[in-house]
Amino acid sequence: MMFWSLILLLLVPGQFAFADEEKSLEQVAEQVIEPRYLSILKQWNEVGQGNAQDFERVVTPADFLSIDKNSLLSSGESKEYGDQVYAWRNKNSVTIEVDVEEEGLYELGFDYYPLGEGIVPIEGSIKVNGEYPYFESRRITFPKDWKSATNDFEQDRFGDEIIPAQLPIEQWHSIKAEDSSHLQARPLKYQLKAGKNTITLENIRGEMLLGNMYVSGVGTIPTYEEYREKQAGDLTETNSITIEAEHPLKKNSSFIRPVNRQDASVVPYERDKRLLNAIGGESWETSGQTATWEMDVEEAGYYQISLKVLQEKQSGFPVFRTVMINGEVPFEEVESYSFQQEKNWVNETLSNEDGKPYYFYLEKGKNTLTLKGDASPVNRTLFEMDEVMKGIEQLSLSIKRLTGNNQDRSRGWRITEYMPEIEGELTSWADKLEGESEYLLELSDGKESVEIVSLNIAVERLRELAADPDKIPARLTQLSEGSSSVAQLLGNATLDLKKQPLIMDRIYIHGDEKLPKPELGFFAKTKESVLKFFHSFQSNTLATEEVDDDVVDVWVNRPRQYVELMQNMVDQNFTPQTGIKVRFSIMPSEQKLILANAANSQPDLALGISSWLPYELAIRGAAYDLREFEDFDETLAHFSPGAFLPMIIEDEVYGLPETQDFFVQFYRKDILGALDVPVPDTWENVVDVLPELQRFGLNYYTPIAGAVAFKPFQSTSPFIYQHQGDMYKEDGMGTTIDSDETVRGIQLMTDLNTIYSTPLQVPNFYNHFRYSTLPIGVSNFQTYVELTSAAPEISGWWDISLHPGVENEDGEVERWATGSGQAGMIFNGSKNKDEAWQVLKWWMSTETQTDFATTLQIMYGPSYMWNTANLDAFKQLPWPEEHKEVILEQWEHLREVPKTPYTYMVEREISNVWNRVVFDGENTRSAVDDAVVTIDREMRRKMEEFGYMKDGKIVKTYPIPTIEQVESWVEENEE
């Protein structure tokens, strides 16, 4: 056994230092990421750290320390605050000093006035005595309130109601510092020592006016019994008040929106129209989102509150809402009120566990009812699952380092000799998860949900692995890799538990009277179902169907909410100005375009299609050359020249870029900073930092790892173009992937995996980036959306930079990368080509794209980011300015791979070269030479098919389009 240990030590240098390396990694993690608030809270409770009571200090802007006096505004500029205020922006920081008599836990509050109309959240961080006390203090958000422009919903051409514009409410706010993920029911607590303390508020993003800052004792909430004792009285006998939930007074998220429920049990309802008759669903599922309604009662007294709701969370787990009256939680029992899953609408009268209704005291006149999405009841479970997932990630990395990532099932390992604690670790994780499963079962009243089942499967799997730890190297798919692994099960359960969707139809403020039934009776529902069935044959307003000859028919390959907004915009702006009628329809699949063209029933214009499709249709005579329009070259100037390359045949252009992807470098500022690792600018820099990253079990992500077996151009072509290589001969009659420049690019692409040990396969870079195992890498727009909208815990602690490149002879860095997005095209068979061009120009104009992008994000949330291909419009999007600058600069290096009849074979063979070199150990030059033979054989066959060759001889050349060619068209137009 000692012999094999020695062999392993020699084969894997430094392998037995892995325990020390793990210790170092833990030390680095402690430097980089502070403990979570829940851990600190437990420590405070264990040592008996008390909450400060009956204490408040108010610090005015005039007493702020270390501030730019020019940013201190007078009371006349204070937006009616009535005193001096501080203009907080541009990464500025504000420090106050507070003297407390006793050590204890305190809460921090702020008066603020949001500036700007954008939806990028205002974010800051709080340090106490020069340090972040816990990780959550790195990001504190300052929300703004929104309202609908009108409660009288307008209708579109089909009679369906339109979601109104959302407007920010300009007013002063007062809040206490809260966890930005809103997984804590109460405000954050900060430990202050006896004597003087400094509190620093640092700007991360956004602008606002800052009024007074408050340091106060920890607030308390009475029990229901204490609440009733404060104000004597019985249940009122006045008439009930009914509030339509789709008309809130305000909300703290612009995208909490009214929705249509085509259900006769919902009020109001019309069979032949889509009315906005409820609120919530997926737009109101994030913890911390609040909606507020106004209640006007005739007399002061106690009232019951009933909510007509539908809780249809697919996983089957309950959701929670915090209930507030006039801005405050009246008593503890409604701080995290549970709504169990139901198949039908119910009137949920807010009641205790025994079903006895709670009484709420309302003042005479106007009062407010606020409901806040609340995931705090599951916070402890989320915390434990997160800890287990981190442990699994570390264990998996340690095993891979120990075994050299050898998963050969026929090879045996004695893992327990090198990791004697592994069995206890796995068992400990299983015990923790089992306890959380039991806790969740209590929350769901004994009903099993998807989340609970996932935890139970994870527990069972961990116990199986713990029973025979030596087999884990061959069973990593059960632990940390693959769709059914423990890590994946916990990851999915985490996402599901955080979601808190709830749909509301009505709110009843009432006494003891009987409420209207929430659901229609059986016979009424049956009758309505039959009538709706027959009506469905008459109306499908956004389906593709025949239109009149004078209407421009546009098919859009996007979801309904996009198409509805496009139709509303064209009806309100374009048609009144031009007189051109336009009908947008949802295209269920791009394949329908090919079938429709074959049947001569194609639309005039198609939008949202893949950037390669215009070429495929054009080479078969189905697309119209956009250069036939006199002002096309003028339109070119708004787009990246490199985006047109796949849509050009000779001098003809068959598509217009609509959206545009981007590949930039994502990196964790906190982790790279703690490791003192610079942000790489070139691939040479990447190679230089890899040893330091890998020393701590970290690595660098490339898009190659995101592809599975087939490696598309978006992951391979950047290496080729950055080395000044190319894919084709100038006349298009053959490939040049065997040129020295191209082979150098392919060599680097494979060396990153074979020599420098970057990951071969990463199912989800976003998850690894969040959990810090891949703190840096190249990725695209999709990752940007995920990090912006679904990773609040690291907001402000990651950034983007330009794609790594290759330095050329002139000292310039070649950063070429793809940016395939979606495109629009006009059909050759259209009878309304000029009108269709007017629609396409209007749609892709700077003003329209800016309005569409802003409206989409305001109405539907941060995940609905629109990556318009119009560069001028992109500059005006509600994204962080520093990120837009990086993306726009990267787009100067956008270069798509031109299309030829045999392009698919070039793409496939480059992918095959990578596989043969990386997995089979084949020589790169030899693999490329074999690929050239295959590509040229297919080239001759396809060129004969499309008339460029005959009997093996060239009939006419196929000039490959270039960026310079597109730029020359723009220059000619400017002249």
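Next protein, fold it too.
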Amino acid sequence: MLQAVIAGAFGALSNAFALLKQPNPTAIGMQEELSLLHSACAEEYAKRSGLVDAPDGLAGRLRATPAWSLLSRLGLPQPGISHPAATVAGMELMLSLHRGKVMAASFCNGVRLALEEEALNLVSLESLLSTHQDEKPPHWIKHARTIYADFFSAFDETSPQPLPPRSFEDRARTELACRAAFATYRRRAGVLDDTCLSRRQIAEAVGYAGTGVFRSPAEREAALWIIGMSGLFGTSTQFIPLATAAPEDWVISYDLAAGVLRRDYSSLVPEAARPRPGVGTPASYIATTPAPARVAEELKRRALDVPGAYELGDLIPALRQISPRDLVHPDLADLGPSFARWSRTLAPLSLQVGLDTLLAGVICGDLGVTARSKLHYCLIGADELWGSAARLYAVLGWDRPVAQPSGSLPFGAAVVPTASALAQLDEAAWRWVEAVRPPKRLGHEALLLEFHNRFVRALSSRLAVWVSLRPAAELSLRAVIQERFDLCVDLLEKSSAGRVGALPAVICDGMRAALMSYREHCKALLERLRTFGWSGPVVAWLMAVIKREDVPLLCTIHGRNNLVPQGTNDLRKTLPGALQLPADWGRKFMENQLRQAGAQSRDIDRHQRHEVIGQEQDTSIADSCEMEWVLRLKPILDRISRQLFRSPLTGLRTGGVAT
């Protein structure tokens, strides 16, 4: 623990030290002392590599000292030191050591939780400080803004420079990322809390007959749509460029001719997989939100009055005048309907009216109501976006959306495999297995192993779809599965903040029959290998699978003592046609198939094991149970399975068929 704390302190201090233009002797001496301490601690730790911390002492120290808990988190061998929160922790640590003042507990806890937000890894501290100017920031960013000047005056010889101005495109990227990164569980559950307007205030805001600072009721309606659906802070909407005047690196723009608002989400998925020809659907990360017909017509009329208009603030000058605390409509409530609260209202309202969380987040520009990781899996057609917008507008009393432009690309990952591509892959795998089927009697030993290996790989490809497996060197399926009785299979693939251990996925009828067939295949394989005099690891593994012990369920056999657990890389290299697919083709396919089949958002997220706070069934806001979840999802999975896997995958034993 001490090694982790010192390593975390040294890394955080180095981040903060890098901000200084001309470090003074105090800062240099502090860095040198901590560097020596870090080296000495590393040497002592290497000498005592076999020793571990006492669990009770470790837990007690971390509970009693939030600063140790934060620094030990920074010292772990995993991503986090590059996070802007780590830089803020370094600034606070240096000031704490300089002044002899204990680091604030609330600050330490806030930074430790913020480190889990991977969406901020590519965002600089200066970007965050300059972004949260008109909105209430998280506590640790507010604290960073407070100590920013003190830090430079204490440790820099030069006077602190003001934060450089940023382009609108840069600020827009950060604001879209912050909406996804700083969401609470209440927001992800669609709760209209104190950060949003209430249902009464929403109805009054939309139906208010006055104009306020706007020139007409039509202009006011257009402004409400822009502020509510852009996904940006209310004061940033004035800078949204028109499509004809947008720069090459645009992030958000409004197309007057088509009447649509477009956002480029590619900055939120910098590591998205590249498309492969022939197996996916053409798509892009440009999300399109159609405007209500009245709003589109009003903006066109305003554009005729301002021929040289460059941005929406030119069409609606009031967007440049309103502040976040200004009220959308007159109200005497203690918590008034401000424009800042209105800008955060429509996404959770979309969940309340029954929209899928992913669709709600995309059309409202607010990914805080869904899992940001879904951007790597999703493929949303323009019809879905238009239908979702129409459903939300009907609730608000707005017009139907403008007509859908022809040739609109779907939104999302261009590597999502189509149903026909997976069906062709499975048919090729079936033929590949049947080509080496051994005789009903013993057959040749090498042919027997080749058949088993092909059968395991073909079965693995179906399991990857059935339970939406993540790519892994060893697939997480274990032989302890009770396929005859279990409703779900527990998969241990990854852990995240606040959640460890296995997560469930529904077992459909096709998967249940396949696992029963696989057990019979293993029994037949064990009998045949024994006739060849086999013993050792392979025989022991087959017996463990038959007895449902805790061993890998899927393994290929390459010799009497060479047993290899099945993994994604091997599957893609050996299965015919699999190399053209993404490594997690089952997850990408099933995410969209379940949504298009009408499955509930919470059911999809649980089956996909997205681990989204507020959407898990074991939280206090959920009233469902596992049995109800299975009954809702299983018929959909059965139907998808029958459409994809039409050829029976037969094992060695007669009657053992994986359908």
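About the second fold: Residues 616-621 have pLDDT under 50 and may be disordered.
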